[in-house]
Amino acid sequence: MKEKVHSKFVSLFGEGGVFYAAAGRINLIGEHTDYNGGYVFPGAIDKGILAEIKENGTDKVRLFAIDRDEYVEFSLSEESLPSQHWPRYIFGVCRETIKRGGKVKGFDAVFAGDVPLGAGLSSSAALESCFAYAINDMNGNGLDLFELARIGQSTEHNYCGVKCGIMDQFASCFGKAGHLIRLNCKTLEYQYFPFNPQGYRVVLLDTCVKHMLADSAYNKRRESCEKAAAEIKKNHPEVDFLSDCKRVWLDEVRGKISEEDFIRAEYVIGEVQRVLDVCDALERGDYETVGEMMYQTHFGLSRLYEVSCPELDFLAKLARKMEVTGARVMGGGFGGCTINLVKDELYDGFIAAAKEQFNAQFGHDLKVYDVVISDGARKL
Ligand code: GLA
To answer: Which of 29, 122, 164 to mutate to test the pocket of ligand 1 (most atoms within 8 A of CB)?
Structure first.
């Protein structure tokens, strides 16, 4: 990938620049909890974005995306919003850096990635984090890693229409090889947990489906949570987020919020607790409990939060049937991957059965990604 990027860079822009990289992510547990002030438990993976970048002495950004074979340029003023979708991630990062008082000098960049698109592995966060990190470094802005993660998140909010939480950009910036990171999304306290489950493998099964309107459905979930939290706050003023709520407080407002908002909140309150339970279990080396929680999360995401789909439900059900330790839909949902915790001795049989039965049921192949927990954003 590096040679490809470099030879394109030289042919387009002349003398080479500096390489930066950032990763996609997995999340062991804690889904749709980030924007509710709850816990998440992600890690960066060995798939990401690689960019070669160099200042060009103008006020323009000139970009070439290898994977799309597309060239785009824009200037750094707010009116220059690119019409295509992918350059908006980088435009947004530039604008959000400027909004925070950072300098952004014009630059040339060529980039490529190997995060599968639409698989729920945060290819967009990898792109944002890579450029947020690079721009900060090249311009000597001195913003800390949290601010870089927030730049990516605000890019999603203000330039891409997704009201996401902080998890993906956080993982992409803070990732550390061999470690998952538990983040409290309210206080932003975080802790690295070594993750090397002896006797188990973590594998992603990509349904290769991505449902339309996932972004608007995502934003709608967030609104439901905020409505529920606002109603609970009337009785319990200390509540800022759903993660502050006890389950019985939710019961008090049943009937005052829609049934839909109620079941969304019910899922989130359960999920916040599950992250803590999983971390405790991991410290005891109790992977069976970790796996059981993953199944509970899948159930909640499918039946209460309603962000699953037939393909994901099929894979989670098959995993259960084959006595896989844990399986669930990962990331925002509406397609993408399941994450599976599988005993070594079951691995081959499970993967073979999943491939065959998935194809027989849906008429197309799934993809298999073994997970390697890796470092986050960096200069190479
Ligand atoms: C997407 C968002 C994250 C998070 C997950 C669900 O990946 O970008 O902020 O909400 O969905 O956990």
So the answer is: 164
Q: What are the phi and psi torsion angles at 176 (to 5°)?
A: -140, 130
Do 29 and 83 fall within a single domain?
Answer: yes
> Do 261 and 179 belong to one domain?
no
Q: With respect to residue 120, please indicate whether it lies within any of the assigned structural domains.
A: yes
Burial status of residue 211 (CB atoms within 10 A of its CB: 0-12, 13-18, 19 or more) = middle
Distance, CA 60 to ligand 1 centroid (Å)? 32
pLDDT in tens, 233-242: 999 999 999 9
Give yes or no: 59 in active site: no
Q: What angle do CA 160, 163, 165 make, to 5 degrees?
A: 120
Q: How far is CA 1 from CA 50, 113, 120, 127, 278, in A?
A: 8, 8, 22, 15, 36
| Whether the predicted pLDDT of 274 surpasses 90 | yes
Q: Which residues pair with 330 in a beta bridge?
A: none
pLDDT grade for 103, boundaries at 50, 70 and 90: very high
Establish if 380 belongs to a structural domain: no
Task: Write b or e for each residue in 42-69: b if 16 or more Cβ atoms lie within 10 A of its Cβ, otherwise e.
Answer: bbbbebbbbbbbbebeeeebbbbbbeee
Average pLDDT estimate for 371-376 = 95
What six digits make up the tokens of 346?
């079951």
Structurally, the chain folds into a number of domains equal to: 2
Mean pLDDT, the chain, integer? 96
